[in-house]
Amino acid sequence: MSACNWVIATSLVFVTINKFLQYSTSYHASWMSKIIQHSVHKKSYDDYHKKLQERLELQEENTTISAQDNYAKWTKNNRKLEKLNEEIKALGIQLKSQQSSIEKQMKKFKLVTLTAPFIILKLWKGKFPVYYLPHSDMFPKIIGGVMSQGWLYLALLPLQILRGSSKVETQGEESMAIQVSVSLGIWLWALMTVISTVEFLINQLVFTKEVKKPVVIEEEKINIKAPNAIEEDKIALD
Amino acid sequence: MDLSVDPNLHSLINSTTHKWIFVGGKGGVGKTTSSCSIAIQMALAQPTKQFLLISTDPAHNLSDAFGEKFGKDARKVTGMNNLSCMEIDPNAALKDMNDMAVSRANADGTNDDDPLGGLLQGGALAELTGSIPGIDEALSFMEVMKHIKRQENGESETFDTVIFDTAPTGHTLRFLQLPNTLSKLLEKFGELTGKLGPMLNMMGAGNVDIASKLNELKSNVESIKQQFTDPDLTTFVCVCISEFLSLYETERLIQELISYDMDVNSIIVNQLLFAEDDQEHNCKRCQARWKMQKKYLDQIDELYEDFHLVKMPLCAGEIRGLNNLTKFSQFLNKEYDPAADGKIIYELEEKE
């Protein structure tokens, strides 16, 4: 029972984290920039923002003074602006490369801590019986086999038919009662499918805006008559 | 320690190291007059050396400035035995190239029925290449390369210093960018010919070894690039007038030149009125204009404090002919003093 608990609990934790990351995708960029702000690259990030602010101030100052009357000041500002633009460009490239390196690290971290362990768990404990069906004949034999063995059972079925040994994995043979289990792999697949369906329904019912039925307005017939238009395709005869 | 810079071009005029001097600025500010003046002063200050003044402006003015006709070949200025002038004529140079191509085609035994030969006979190559943007600058650049080669080979008529009367800013910047652009282009070509060289030589290039030709061109371009960025060999003199647009363009030019690693430390401010010292001819309009010029002069002083700022007067007549140019050019060597030199600006001879 304790084994059952930890396998299911771990699976549920992985599913929950995956779903949380999926729902929060739109916030990842801002989290990333917050991470950079407080990471080892804080200095270059602060420098970048300081220079942006400085550029804005210089641009504002240059718009308020007359280039003709304060030519020296205006030109000095332009020189500073040009220098700042180059520095900002260089810092931007540096920050971008730092951000992409952090992103790569985060992806690696996710792979190591989440994706890989979850896959390993599914492979290792894929056939782990989450629960047993009350009756072995609740579903046809093949479905029972898929439930207890996973999708691999379906793939190996032709081979088993050829060998003449198509049988459903049973548990607790000592009790002589043939029980069909629901394996962890199938249970997780079913769980994910249910969650996706619920997500779809909630999305459609709550978050999708209702499209109003278009109102058809009867078009008014516009007759434009040219000044010298021929009204009828007939030639009046005397 | 006094760190102020002389308000004249005395150090440049007496410089024995400078090989290339560019004179440039906005159109109509007096580039030709200034370049002629620099050339004359250098030729007078260093009589044992030979100087060449080249106009790279497609709209040549050297002939008008000296009052005598110059062509695509260097010719001495009448009255000076160490100053020559030439005006690069893109059309004539292209015509020469076309004629060379025709004679080569004839030498190879190509008959008149050959469509390519027929096309060249009509000067099509010259017409085609003449319409390529930047061809004037490219031809000027070729002229520079020719001179460097002549100097290296020790051929006759070599010049110690070449002064360029350049075209307005945009053209000049394109011209000065050419060594960098060509260098990059040749590097790419070098990579290509490294891979395809033998094949190219087999495919109708005849006896011409493309790879070696490219390498030769590349070394020439590199040599020019190196010389242009050496402050002992090359410098740029900016010419402007004391008005907003001219100053704005000068600033742009200086920043670009700095980005090319070129030496630029002299500015000639032309056409100044010095109205307050001109008691005899002091009209209201001159006063107002001088006030405006002074406003910008103050700004120039503030902006370019480490530059040689040469303030030149606006003369009463046109500065044409060797005599007038010589009189005017003295203020490049020793700065103009409005109180003492004021009468000179009315002494220019009228050229017919």
TrEMBL record, chain A:
GO BP annotations of the record are:
establishment of protein localization to endoplasmic reticulum membrane; mitophagy; retrograde vesicle-mediated transport, Golgi to endoplasmic reticulum; tail-anchored membrane protein insertion into ER membrane
What GO molecular function terms would the record report?
A: membrane insertase activity; protein transmembrane transporter activity; protein-membrane adaptor activity
Might you report a single GO cellular component term?
Golgi membrane
Question: Sorted alphabetically, which Gene3D superfamilies does this protein's record hold?
Answer: Helix hairpin bin
The UniProt transmembrane annotation reads: 109-126, 180-202
**Keyword Signal applies:** yes
Per the record, ranges on the Lumenal side are 1-4
Q: Which residues lie on this side of the membrane: Cytoplasmic?
A: 199-238
Q: Which InterPro entries match?
A: Get1 (IPR028945), Get1_fungi (IPR027538), Helix_hairpin_bin_sf (IPR029012)
Q: Which residues form a coiled coil?
A: 42-101
Q: Name one Pfam family in it.
A: CHD5
Question: Which UniProt keyword terms apply here?
Answer: Coiled coil, Endoplasmic reticulum, ER-Golgi transport, Golgi apparatus, Membrane, Signal, Transmembrane, Transmembrane helix, Transport
- For this UniProt entry, which residues form the secretion signal? 1-17
Location in the cell: Endoplasmic reticulum membrane; Golgi apparatus membrane
What membrane topology does the UniProt entry give?
A: Multi-pass membrane protein
Q: What does this protein do?
A: Required for the post-translational delivery of tail-anchored (TA) proteins to the endoplasmic reticulum. Together with GET2, acts as a membrane receptor for soluble GET3, which recognizes and selectively binds the transmembrane domain of TA proteins in the cytosol. The GET complex cooperates with the HDEL receptor ERD2 to mediate the ATP-dependent retrieval of resident ER proteins that contain a C-terminal H-D-E-L retention signal from the Golgi to the ER.
The record ties this protein, via HAMAP family, to: Get1
Record note on quaternary structure: Component of the Golgi to ER traffic (GET) complex, which is composed of GET1, GET2 and GET3. Within the complex, GET1 and GET2 form a heterotetramer which is stabilized by phosphatidylinositol binding and which binds to the GET3 homodimer.
Q: Which family does it belong to?
A: Belongs to the WRB/GET1 family.
- Protein's recorded name: Golgi to ER traffic protein 1
Q: Which organism is it from?
A: Naumovozyma dairenensis (strain ATCC 10597 / BCRC 20456 / CBS 421 / NBRC 0211 / NRRL Y-12639) (Saccharomyces dairenensis)
Automatic annotation (TrEMBL), chain B:
For this protein, the parts annotated as crossing the membrane are: none
Provide the residue positions that the database annotates as binding ATP.
K26, G27, G28, V29, G30, K31, T32, T33, E243, N270
Main location (coarse class): cytoplasm
Name the Gene3D superfamilies on file: P-loop containing nucleotide triphosphate hydrolases (3.40.50.300)
Q: Give the residues annotated as active site.
A: D57
Q: Which domain of life is it from?
A: Eukaryota
Q: Show where the ArsA/GET3 Anion-transporting ATPase-like domain sits.
A: 18-333
Q: Which UniProt keywords apply?
A: ATP-binding, Cytoplasm, Endoplasmic reticulum, Golgi apparatus, Hydrolase, Metal-binding, Nucleotide-binding, Transport, Zinc
Cross-referenced InterPro entries: ArsA/GET3_ATPase-like, ATPase_ArsA/GET3, ATPase_ArsA/GET3_euk, P-loop_NTPase
- Which residues does Zn(2+) bind? C283, C286
Per the UniProt entry, what are the Gene Ontology biological process annotations, in alphabetical order? cellular response to oxidative stress; pheromone-dependent signal transduction involved in conjugation with cellular fusion; post-translational protein targeting to endoplasmic reticulum membrane; response to heat; response to metal ion; retrograde vesicle-mediated transport, Golgi to endoplasmic reticulum; tail-anchored membrane protein insertion into ER membrane
GO molecular function terms listed in the Swiss-Prot or TrEMBL record: ATP binding; ATP hydrolysis activity; guanyl-nucleotide exchange factor activity; identical protein binding; metal ion binding; protein folding chaperone; unfolded protein binding
Could you describe the subunit structure of this protein?
Homodimer. Component of the Golgi to ER traffic (GET) complex, which is composed of GET1, GET2 and GET3. Within the complex, GET1 and GET2 form a heterotetramer which is stabilized by phosphatidylinositol binding and which binds to the GET3 homodimer. Interacts with the chloride channel protein GEF1.
Note the PANTHER family from the entry.
ARSENICAL PUMP-DRIVING ATPASE ARSENITE-TRANSLOCATING ATPASE, ATPASE GET3
Family assignment from sequence similarity: Belongs to the arsA ATPase family.
What this chain does, per the record? ATPase required for the post-translational delivery of tail-anchored (TA) proteins to the endoplasmic reticulum. Recognizes and selectively binds the transmembrane domain of TA proteins in the cytosol. This complex then targets to the endoplasmic reticulum by membrane-bound receptors GET1 and GET2, where the tail-anchored protein is released for insertion. This process is regulated by ATP binding and hydrolysis. ATP binding drives the homodimer towards the closed dimer state, facilitating recognition of newly synthesized TA membrane proteins. ATP hydrolysis is required for insertion.
What NCBIfam families does the annotation carry?
GET3_arsA_TRC40
What name has this protein been given in UniProt? ArsA/GET3 Anion-transporting ATPase-like domain-containing protein
